[in-house]
Amino acid sequence: MLPRSITTKTFWAVQLTAWPTYCLISLLGVWPYIGLEPHLDSVKTAFLSKAAFAAAGFLSSSGMWFVYRAKNGRDFSWVRTGPAVIALSYVAGLSATVSSNLARHFANARHGELGWSSLFGGAINASAIFLAWSGCYFAVRHYQAFERERRDALRANALANRAQLEVLRSQVNPHFLFNALNSIHALVRENPDRSQVAVEELAEFLRYSLTRSNVFDVPLVEEVEVLKRYLALEKIRFEEKLSVRMAIDPQVEQVRVPGFLLHPLLENSIKYGMQTSSIPLQIRVTAERDEHLLRLSIANTGRWVNGGDLLRRADSMGMGLKIVRQRLDHAFPGQYRFECRERDGWVENVITIPSLNAQVA
Length: 361
Hints:
By secondary structure, this protein is an alpha+beta fold. It is built from 9 helices and 7 strands, in the order H-H-H-H-H-E-H-E-E-H-E-E-H-H-E-E.
């Protein structure tokens, strides 16, 4: 059931508009026949007759509303409600017809006849109006109930997705932090001065992470900036052993992507690339538009560790690829491609997602 305050406000607004409008339309409909029929001998007679019908209709439909509202629970059944709707519509039609005939009689008393012989037939015709009113009421009520259920389902789904994304994000940051601290640990022994610079870079990264902690998607340009901070840490450690090239199409810089989506891929490229590639390890990060799609690629020289399809070996190779797939599943369900392949001495991870939210430069 919808909140009563909203239903009541909407109902009375429609009632106070619809019945006067019906009165006006009915009066215009009989206007050409005024003076041609005994029961329409003057404008006054026609107006009072139609106004009385509309007033009775307003009161009768209001009473029907109170009855229908009482049947707004979970036990609602058309088998039980249908006969009640028909009976109430006929009673309402009879009431409106009687009111119209009485108004016509008192407006034109010299004719004397109330027309009781046609009263019940007229009530049947009038009851069609109230049947239509009832049909509209139930149609709107069920539509509103359907919309409310749909909104509740979407809200529940959004809350569930938010909770799952919170879990995934909590996995991403410690995963990155663990690798960064390992790099700094190695630098402390090899080059203490450079380790201080690395700590400063890590602090900048963590500051960014904290300020964006409640944001699940960011413009691609921000994601790239975070990648650059991570690469700055790694460059301090590996120096000339690491070579990075970025090619980011300006047209896709404002496409929104899940925050920290690319970090696990970049970390894997460096971690496993250093084990399998000739030195210097080459990293290539690209982002480009492909019609209505955004194509992201992180590639490194080298080969798969232990061979095989790394996507199917995510459990044995760490949580990085698992995190990426889960984030894509939640952000773009059924709308993305995630490919990992080895070709011509390069290992490449390619993500293709919709780019309809891109702002063309």
